Amino acid sequence: MPAAEPSPTPEAQLVMDALRRIVRSLRQSARAAEDRLGISAAQLFVLHEVGRGSKLSINELAERTLTDQSSVSVVVKRLAEKRLVERQPSAEDARRTEVMLTARGRALLRNAPEATQVELIAGLDRLAPADRASLARLLTELVAGLETASSAAPMFFEDGEAAVRTRPHAATPER
Fold first, then answer.
1. Buried-exposed string 161-172: b where 16+ CB fall within 10 A, e elsewhere
2. How many independent structural domains does the chain possess?
3. In a domain, 120, yes or no
4. What pLDDT score was predicted for residue 91?
5. Residue 4 placed within a domain
6. Which of 17, 60, 136, 157 could crosslink 56 through cysteines, CB 3.0-4.6 Å?
7. Buried/exposed code over 55-91 (b: 16+ C-beta within 10 A; e: otherwise)
8. Which letter does DSSP use for residue 86 in this model?
């Protein structure tokens, strides 16, 4: 006779409820960006970050969006195709491509809501450093048990045709 599966704990219920609320908020934000602005939530997030700087490299955008360079590059390409950002070689280093808002991108941002990812990152930043480290460690452990653990973590709700490399992660804090 197979062993009975353990019953979910009250803590598991709280975690699942919190994850559902986060995903729902991100999904609603994604739909609103698509419906209202004609861009994805990931594109809105990157556009906001480009708007916070004058000229940013792809690597700087990856740092600001807490994702990998390949994912940001795909999003920037789509924004450039919509003429919301412009890419040009840096005057100081021709190997570096700088991204900046176009007039069309600035106009869209004036009427755009804050990206939900910005609020999520701000919420994480409000946590005590030890709590943030614990959350990172625990979520990493949780994801390690999922089938998708070995795949890259692209930007939320951005379907990319390009293959996305896995971003090197910071060392997981010890227990």
1. eeebeebeeeee
2. 1
3. yes
4. 86
5. no
6. 60
7. bbbbebbbebbebbbbbbbbbbebbeebebbbeeeee
8. E
pLDDT in tens, 32-46: 888 999 999 999 999
Task: Residue 135: count other Cβ atoms within 10 Å of its Cβ.
Answer: 12
- Give yes or no for a contact between 119 and 155, defined as CB atoms under 8 angstroms apart: no
Contact 11, 19 (CB under 8 A): no
CATH of residue 87's domain is 1.10.10.10
In a domain, 97, yes or no: yes
d(CA 79, CA 26): 20
Tokens matching residue 102: 């176009």
Q: Which domain holds residue 139?
A: 20-146
Tokens read off for 10: 């009250």
